[in-house]
Amino acid sequence: MITPEQEQWILSKAYVPEHIVSLMTIISKGEAFLLSGYLFYVGDTWGILVGYPLGSEFSPETFSMIFKDVTSRCPRHSWSIIAPHLPAEILYSCVEKQSDIYYTLSFEDFDSKETLRRTAEKASSQLTIEVTRAMASEHEAITKEFIDREQPISLIQEFYNAMPGYVLHSETALVLNARDFNGRLSAFYVLDLAAHDFATYVVGCHSKERYVPHASDMLFFEMVNIARESGKGYVNLGLGVNSGIRRFKEKWGGKPTIPYEFCRYQSGITGVHTMIVKLLARP
Questions:
Q1: Is 131 in contact with 174 (CB distance < 8 Å)?
Q2: Cβ atoms within 10 Å, residue 190
Q3: Number of Cα atoms under 13 Å in the Cβ half of residue 117
Q4: Lowest mean pLDDT, pick from 28-37, 148-157, 200-209, 264-273
Q5: String of DSSP letters for 150-213
Q6: pTM of the shown model
Q7: Which among 48, 69, 111, 256 is placed 20 to 30 Å from 264, CA to CA?
Q8: Inter-axis angle of helices 21-28 and 154-169, to 10 degrees?
């Protein structure tokens, strides 16, 4: 278990969303631990090993030793392993593998998108933005509409449904609401400001029944402004996931910056890390 002092040190060195202890522990209901600059999270039958070292450069040799140490502590657990590069000896033992890349957005690149910014600003003729620290039944209704429409896998559904509880218990989460002039919720974003250097896009959702053009762009614009006003250096937009999500991030100036590899070690139910990562990346 990590101490409050360790958590503050972690947040001062964080550069991927999985370094945000409160985000990971509230959603997963696991416990966080720190070993030689590496974070890992443990639940009843699962574990998540974050192979992005804090305060040092990534070394495949060092990470292999950390992997053996951490997984030997809970030998009956199933492990989700992420790192910028997974050594061959780890990949060989995995039953599921995938790769992606984290996108980040600098304020300089955002500022260069003048046409998009004007488009987002035009949405203010039909929408108002509200910033809160709570979610209500109207958010649940839009979430249900999204789930019924898109039919995401069960883990993603669980992640969306966990958002009200996460926001309620997080001291650093913000909910950005786009409302029409009748006060009806059209779309929302969840943003986390825990990391010292960056803001993290957590999740977003819009209504087709109450659709207003460019509501997502307007929320994106507001998210970046909040990040800047909060003293952050950039926004972490999560993983690329698919071509549609990549296009949305790239059109605003997001760039692929941090390599990502994932594997699942041992059989059993994990999914917690995959659920969090995929949803952090969704525009």
A1: yes
A2: 25
A3: 12
A4: 264-273
A5: H---HHHHHHHHHHHHHHHH-SSEEEEEEEETTS-EEEEEEEE--SSSEEEEEEEEE-STT--T
A6: 0.88
A7: 256
A8: 120
